[in-house]
Design a protein that fits this description.
Blueprint lengths: L1 H8 L2 H18 L16 H13 L1 H13 L5 H13 L2 H24 L6 H18 L2 H18 L28 H24 L5 H6 L11 H8 L10 H16 L6 H10 L2 H4 L1 H11 L6 H10 L3
Helix pairs in contact: 2-4, 3-6, 4-5, 6-7, 6-8, 6-9, 7-9
């Protein structure tokens, strides 16, 4: 994908050819789509990768026409034409299946990614969204879901004029002491793509998410909700939360402060206004000094980032200076 982007957008002439063919193609199909360009992949941002896959999926027919035009019209030198031919050969059925798969999965992940980058992020609810994403990905490993993706890939293959070709497998020599029961099972066609590609992709993304949000940190994120607002019945969640900050405050005394604050919040009818606003209310009413251990805990939680997006935004802004 990155090579296709670099080849097409690396020259104003090839970029102009892409736009011209795209306009003619949309006009012939009666589609009033906005003219778009291929997008570069990003090493860090889910959003960029999702957009890059979506744009390429929508314009794969246009891109092939561009490559064919460069190969056969004789207006480009032999080196450029050879590069176009090489890229054209790479766009086969397997490429279409990969593109359909990653477009669908990355669009799903991008929803949660954007939420995690929100400045008004609720950390406690973020843990629930992460768990729902992992659970949804786990549910994707089914024959029915893969069949839907495979059917989409077949439709794309039909549009761009390619067919599935089974890769050659090395023949394993049969030993005299081998029987047919010991012969290795060789998966072919759709079953091979599901086992050796699709399932591995799902597991790789799940492992990345579980590595970032491990079983050690998820209880911390979930227990934060006990501070918004404090309630006497959530004392157990407070104990879980306090266990992550042993030595920062008095773990025994904080439970008494928590009960008193919970009653004060209940009598004031503040409701669920968010941890940040609740802490500001505590400071305004002098409760931060009255409950010093809770004051420390609130400050620790308010400075706990679930992502590094805030830091990345700061560095991006500094580049403009």
């Amino acid at each position: 994908m990155q090579k296709l982007y670099a080849f097409t957008e690396g020259s104003t002439k090839r970029h102009g050819l892409f736009k011209d063919i795209q306009m003619k193609y949309y006009a012939s199909q009666g589609v009033g789509k906005k003219i778009g360009t291929l997008k570069s992949l990003s090493d860090t941002r889910w959003s960029s990768r999702a957009e890059a896959c979506q744009v390429l999926l929508e314009n794969i027919s246009v891109l092939l026409k561009v490559l064919d035009s460069i190969i056969y019209n004789g207006k480009y030198d032999s080196g450029i034409a050879f590069d176009a031919l090489s890229l054209s050969k790479c766009i086969d059925f397997q490429f279409g299946l990969c593109l359909v798969t990653f477009t669908d999965i990355l669009k799903l992940c991008n929803i949660i990614s954007k939420y995690l980058q929100n400045e008004d992020l609720n950390i406690s609810s973020a843990s629930l969204h992460i768990e729902s994403l992992i659970s949804t990905l786990q549910g994707y490993i089914t024959e029915a879901y893969f069949d839907q993706l495979y059917l989409q890939a077949e439709k794309i293959a039909e549009i761009i004029g390619v067919t599935y070709s089974e890769p050659r497998h090395r023949k394993v020599p049969t030993r005299l002491d081998d029987s047919e029961h010991h012969a290795p099972i060789v998966l072919t066609g759709k079953y091979r793509m599901k086992e050796q590609f699709f399932n591995d992709v799902i597991e790789l993304i799940k492992e990345a998410l579980q590595s970032r949000f491990s079983h050690e940190t998820m209880p911390l994120l979930k227990s934060i909700e006990c501070l918004n607002p404090p309630k006497a019945e959530n004392i157990q969640d407070l104990r879980v939360l306090s266990s992550y900050y042993i030595g920062d405050f008095d773990a025994d005394l904080i439970e008494y402060e928590y009960k008193l604050l919970a009653k004060s919040i209940e009598l004031s009818n503040i409701g669920k206004i968010g941890i940040h606003k609740l802490y500001l209310y505590m400071v305004k009413e002098g409760m931060a000094k009255l409950y010093p251990n809770l004051n420390i805990l609130y400050r620790l939680i308010l400075t706990l980032p679930v992502t590094s997006s805030a830091c990345e935004r700061s560095f991006s802004t500094l580049k403009l200076i």
